[in-house]
Structure to design on (104 residues):
């Protein structure tokens, strides 16, 4: 039941976040910062690096800052290895991890 609850809340928040991107992209632009004239492949690689840096930094800090660890510990609380383990994240921690990426 706990796994199902995490799946519904986390995947539901992902769907809501994705559906808000068109609206948010009209509010926040990166025209002056992003190399939009560069080759598409390089833009994709840069986007992956920026996003991965944010996720990695959040994960690193989650193991070192007690307040973040309390949220992140949910991910490490699984007792067996199976497909739902990746979804075992506290919704607040999931929100922090998404906010440290490039954002809209």
């Amino acid at each position: 039941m706990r796994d199902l609850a995490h799946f519904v809340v986390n995947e539901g928040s992902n769907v809501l976040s994705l559906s808000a991107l068109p609206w948010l992209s009209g509010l926040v632009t990166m025209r002056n910062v992003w190399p939009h004239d560069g080759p598409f492949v390089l833009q994709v690689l840069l986007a992956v690096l920026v996003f991965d840096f944010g996720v990695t930094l959040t994960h690193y800090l989650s193991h070192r800052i007690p307040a973040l660890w309390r949220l992140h510990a949910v991910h490490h609380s699984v007792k067996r290895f199976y497909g739902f383990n990746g979804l075992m994240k506290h919704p607040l921690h999931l929100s922090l991890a998404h906010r440290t990426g490039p954002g809209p």
About this structure: Residues 73 and 89 are 8 Å apart (CA to CA). The chain is about 60% helix and 0% strand. The longest helix spans residues 2-27. The mean pLDDT is 75.
